[in-house]
Each structure stands twice: as C-alpha cells, then as structure tokens.
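> example.struct
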C-alpha cells in the first residue's frame, strides 16, 4: 500500500538484479511463512517476478535468526559462512531458472 508499484517493478522485476535484490532483502527481513505470503502477493501484483519471489522465499526461512544462531554454534564459523554462501548462491540460481521458465 505504501510502496509504489513502479518501485517494486524496478527493484524486483524480471531481471537478474531483481532476483539478487530479493535474495538480499530476504536475509535481514525475515517474516514467518504466514506473513510472507500476503507480502509477496502484494509485491507480485505490483510487478515482482516469480523468480525474485522464489529467491525471497528461500533466503528468508533459511536465514532466520534463531536458525542461524544454532547453525553457527554447531557448524563453526568457516562452515557457517559456507552455508550462508550456499543459501545465497542457490537461491539466485533457482530464481534465475524460474524467471527463464515462467
């Protein structure tokens, strides 16, 4: 409601930058699954690509603060950083594939 449609379309549109931005925003802006669906529904209606939405949905739950705290303790710092890189890279690849297919 408060974000103009043109902003959403420019930031999360059907391009590589949109998927990257969605993955990046999904990390610090974690919302529970139930809260993410209405948010993404509105963003999709304003021009967000399906690939960007997919990328956002992958990075959000994967980087929930409580999960990250436990993973850092269990995995150690080196493997924790590898995990974060894996989540970001895989969400970018999957988002790009979704954009190409749909």
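> example.seq
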């Amino acid at each position: 409601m408060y974000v103009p449609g043109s902003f959403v379309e420019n930031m999360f549109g059907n391009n590589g930058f949109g998927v990257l931005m969605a993955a990046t925003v999904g990390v610090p802006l974690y919302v529970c699954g139930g809260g993410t669906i209405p948010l993404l529904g509105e963003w999709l209606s304003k021009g967000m690509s399906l690939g960007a939405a997919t990328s956002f949905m992958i990075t959000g739950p994967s980087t929930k603060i409580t999960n990250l705290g436990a993973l850092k303790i269990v995995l150690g710092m080196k493997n924790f950083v590898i995990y974060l890189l894996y989540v970001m890279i895989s969400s970018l690849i999957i988002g790009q594939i979704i954009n190409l297919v749909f």
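> remarks
The radius of gyration is 14 Å.
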